[in-house]
Design brief:
single chain; Rossmann fold; 154 residues; 5-stranded parallel sheet; alpha/beta; 4 helices
């Protein structure tokens, strides 16, 4: 005996609440918008933000070290981007700052999982060595992360 067909019921969307949100920052307008979106979500959930900047490895020519590359200056530059992002973040949302070194995609995914984050928020544009590539980073993070990812377009 066949059961009567029930009309298809679309699942009800749950509001996006996350208490521990990782936001990748790089000084771009997209990253600023990502921080603002993440802060709004955290504020509603009574959560917190972790801002992460990743110092990418230098692009080395096959013949030897990159001329004029100063790893200390590169790290200071990314640390400054992180501080500036923190200064622009709302004061009523708890904040943690992290500076990592390595491949941006791998570091974002690793920090998201190891930090027990509920959500990763990324902008969709990059700067410096990542200029024009953060869209690629966001796509790779989307594919590799076990943590939900929100990409904010500028």
């Amino acid at each position: 005996m066949a059961l009567p067909a029930e009309p298809f019921a679309a699942p009800q969307a749950e509001p996006l609440l996350a208490c521990n949100i990782l936001v990748a920052v790089d000084g771009s307008r997209g990253a600023e918008l990502a921080v603002a979106h993440a802060a709004a979500i955290a504020r509603v959930a009574g959560g917190r933000l972790t801002l992460l900047a990743v110092v990418p490895p230098p692009r080395l020519p096959s013949a030897g070290p990159a001329l004029g590359y100063d790893p200390h200056a590169a790290e200071q530059g990314w640390a400054e981007e992180l501080r500036e992002a923190a200064e622009k973040a709302p004061r009523d949302v708890p904040l943690t700052l992290r500076l990592a070194h390595g491949d941006p995609t791998k570091e974002i995914v690793r920090h998201a999982e190891e930090g027990c984050h509920d959500l990763v928020v990324l902008g969709c544009e990059g700067r410096g060595l990542l200029h024009g590539a953060l869209r690629g980073v966001s796509q790779r993070v989307l594919r590799r992360s076990k943590v939900p990812v929100l990409v904010v377009r500028s």
